[in-house]
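Before our next group meeting I need something from you. Please put the record directly below this note.
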Amino acid sequence: MFFKQSGYDPHPMEKDVFYLEKYNLKEKVVVLNGGARGIGYACAEAFAECGATIVLADILPEVEASAKKLKDDKKIRVDSKVIDLTYSEQIKTFADSVLESHQKVDILVNSQGIGGSLINAEEMTDESWNKTIDINLNSVFWSCRAFGKIMINQGSGSIINIGSMSGLIVNYGLSQSEYNTSKAGVHMLTKSLAVEWAKRGVRVNAVAPGYIETDMTRPAYEKPERFKVMTEMTPQNRMGETHEIASTVLFLGSDASSFMTGIILVADGGFTSL
């Protein structure tokens, strides 16, 4: 009745929708922070497979070798930058250089981060706390600010931040208050920017992974008894793999998620559903 009275047609005559075409990224430029390895590199592989031009950034010098491998494997343009993302001026300069080289930035993925210290809060030093907050949260804001300006000016863009289920719950048996706090901050930053920038054409979402097999998470599960608890508390009874997170990031970066912003997409094998 409402549709009839308002004159709104819920089934307007539109051009045909080609769903696979939503994942065609051949004209897109994707910047991946923390892209040397792990989840970041898997995301780069996913976007490259869909034809995007890739810019990998990381503090690790191996990012250059990672870029070369990706270029050789996927036969697309891949640039790389060794950068300390805890310095906002370096990020601004980096963003300006990407814009100069590529004339635009379509997608930004912030996958930079370090794991928890596994130190009890009462014993944690200021240095340890500040290091985690700087890398996991501050650098994400500074990157969103620098590249978000570019996207706002061009009237379009998609930002995906890598949060964590640890920003939603406290992991049993792991003393990592600084890590949990940093990831909760990433989630709220994501929602805040999504609301601020929605009318300016920029979408901002986050993925909250569960336990994923990476070099960063190895210290948390290298002990058999800890690994047993982590997997048994996950309904799927296993840890996730980097490609499973990359698939969700690809979805959020593509036009397949065009009506989604401010979302914290959880990929944790059911862990936070318990």
In short: The CA atoms of residues 190 and 259 lie 15 Å apart.
